[in-house]
């Protein structure tokens, strides 16, 4: 963040303090009920029609690469997001508009594809299972301890029958994830080239067989999102089976389908948001590939384009210049709060 923005932020935050700004830790459902439109702090420039980054990661390694990110770089990403007014949310909460994001913060979603061992590695020490602190989950758990207000969470997209590559610990891992606020998504049974599949049965198999496999370990959990391997899709007539289907008695329904690349996504309540094609930004820090770095910088320079929460789940605060994009069908009883953010600049 550049100095001017940082300075402005400090001023905004201190102004906000005098107006009853709720600290993130005070963000509990009880408070949510009490807040009225008049309590919303407009000096934070809430913009719930702004853009959201869904970040895509694969492997945590020693060195940065195109599809890999080093442990250090992953930690730096978390620190950057934390220090720059972002707040982690689950993909599901983002899509359904159920995010509870502190006022003034921008939601951001983390996703990991492929279920590699370095995403979630465990080691057994004196009969006890220890999460490898260098694996993605280990790094996030540590970050959570240091920054309890940041809501460290991610969705892991799994394929095949050996996700995270330690079969003996799979039961522990899947249960640990869902008990600790992470999510699990479908990445097909064979990491399939879905563009080469031309029968309904094969799509149902690819999605249903994987869902069935994971359900054996976490029967109560609902897998409701899909990350397309290589970002590829079958022909148009088969695409409905990406969204929902039934396979060997198991029904699946995806409220979000994720692409590979390469730009921020619309707000969940924006007419242009398409749950079947959610773009993702690749986290990378090599000289050649800096997709995430470029978007971080973009949102520093274009702060007004970010989704900025008003702090209240059931009130949607939208600057007047963006109200034409509101998708009324999504509101379901939520209140709309329109304000003129240019007026605010002129005060
Ligand atoms: Zn993949």
Explained architecture:
The protein has 347 residues and is α/β, with parallel strands linked by helices. The chain has one domain (3-346): Glycoside hydrolase/deacetylase (TIM Barrel, Alpha-Beta Barrel), CATH 3.20.20. Helix content is 29%, strand content 18%. The chain is built from ten helices and 16 strands. It has helices at 3-18, 29-34, 71-83, 91-96, 136-146, 170-179, 200-215, 240-243, 291-301, 341-346; strands spanning 53-57, 59-61, 68-70, 86-88, 106-113, 122-125, 128-131, 155-158, 183-186, 225-227, 244-247, 250-253, 256-258, 281-282, 315-319, 335-339. The strands form six sheets. Strands 1, 4, 5, 8, 9 and 14 form a six-stranded parallel beta sheet that branches. Strand 4 (86-88), helix 4 and strand 5 (106-113) form a beta-alpha-beta unit. The chain starts with a helix and ends with a helix. The relative contact order is 0.17. Mean pLDDT is 91; it is low at 6-22. Bound molecules: zinc ion.
Write a brief structural summary.
The chain is of the alpha/beta class and 347 residues long. It contains ten helices and 16 strands. Strands 1, 4, 5, 8, 9 and 14 form a six-stranded parallel sheet that branches.
């Amino acid at each position: 963040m550049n100095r001017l923005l940082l300075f402005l932020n400090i001023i905004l935050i201190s102004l906000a303090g005098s107006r009853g700004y709720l600290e993130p830790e005070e963000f509990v459902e009880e408070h949510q009920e009490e807040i009225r439109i008049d309590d919303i702090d407009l000096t934070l420039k809430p913009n719930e029609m702004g853009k959201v980054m869904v970040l895509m990661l694969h492997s945590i390694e020693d060195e940065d690469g195109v599809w890999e990110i080093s442990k250090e770089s992953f930690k730096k990403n978390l620190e950057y997001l934390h220090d720059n007014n972002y707040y982690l949310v689950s993909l599901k909460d983002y899509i359904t508009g159920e995010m509870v994001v502190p006022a003034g913060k921008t939601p951001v979603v983390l996703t990991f594809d492929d279920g590699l061992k370095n995403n979630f590695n465990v080691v057994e020490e004196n009969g006890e299972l220890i999460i490898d602190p260098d694996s993605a989950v280990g790094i996030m758990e540590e970050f959570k301890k240091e920054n309890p207000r940041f809501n460290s969470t991610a969705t892991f997209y799994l394929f095949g029958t050996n996700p995270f590559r330690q079969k003996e610990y799979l039961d522990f891992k899947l249960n640990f994830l869902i008990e600790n606020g992470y999510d699990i998504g479908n990445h097909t049974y064979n990491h399939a080239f879905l563009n080469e599949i031309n029968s309904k049965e094969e799509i149902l198999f690819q999605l249903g067989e994987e869902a069935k496999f994971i359900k054996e370990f976490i029967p109560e959990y609902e897998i409701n999102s899909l990350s397309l391997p290589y970002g590829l899709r079958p022909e148009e007539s088969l695409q409905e089976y990406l969204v929902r289907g039934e396979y060997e008695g198991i029904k699946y329904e995806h409220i979000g389908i994720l692409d590979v690349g390469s730009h921020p996504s619309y707000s969940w309540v924006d007419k242009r948001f398409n749950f079947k094609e959610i773009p993702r930004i690749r986290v990378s820090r090599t000289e050649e590939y800096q997709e995430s770095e470029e978007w971080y910088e973009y949102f520093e320079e274009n702060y007004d384009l970010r989704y900025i929460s008003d702090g209240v789940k059931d009130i949607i605060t939208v600057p007047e210049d963006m109200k034409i994009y509101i998708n009324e069908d999504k509101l379901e009883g939520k209140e709309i709060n329109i304000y003129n953010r240019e007026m605010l600049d002129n005060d």
